[in-house]
Specification:
By secondary structure, the chain is an alpha+beta fold. The chain has helices at about 55-75, 125-140, and strands spanning about 5, 10-15, 30-40, 45-55, 75-80, 90-100, 100-110, 115-125. The protein is about 25% helix and about 45% strand.
């Protein structure tokens, strides 16, 4: 089953639990794989990026814990990134920063072999988005095999 997790209006993770262990992944790790899609709409244009990603359960749990602190304090940051680069699922990052409940999402998507990179910063967000992001993330985590 695929779970969509929105981080702001135009940044979406689409993830599913992996039913097999990837060749280059520690056999004790549980992983999710899927895509990270970013659509940026600056004045007069549109830029988008789509990247296959692979993330460990531990990285998702860490992100969930950081989101909890962020929602409690309404100030700080939470980052999701792969713990290692493996099987073509690396080289991305999402960071949410809040100050008094308002903030931004920043990060990047990159190709491993060619070095092309889409970097984004200043995508506006507030805590109302993050509560739904965490609810969607916890739904994925609750179906962990």
């Amino acid at each position: 089953m695929c779970y969509a997790i929105a981080v702001g209006q135009d940044i979406t993770l689409s993830l599913s639990w992996d039913d097999r262990i990837r060749a280059q992944v520690n056999p004790d790790w549980q992983t999710v794989s899927g895509t990270l899609e970013v659509v940026l709409r600056p004045a007069g244009g549109q830029l988008s990026g789509l990247r296959d990603i692979l993330v460990t359960a531990e990285a998702l749990i860490h992100f969930d814990n950081e989101l909890s602190r962020l929602l409690d304090d309404l100030t700080g940051s939470a980052t999701l990134e792969p713990q290692v680069d493996y099987d073509g699922g690396g080289d991305f990052e999402l960071t949410v920063r809040l100050k008094y409940g308002k903030g931004t999402v920043s990060g990047f998507l990159a190709t491993v072999y060619h070095g092309a990179r889409l970097t984004f910063d200043g995508v506006e967000i507030d805590q109302s988005y993050l509560a739904e992001t965490q609810r969607q993330l916890r739904r994925l985590l609750s179906h962990r095999p």
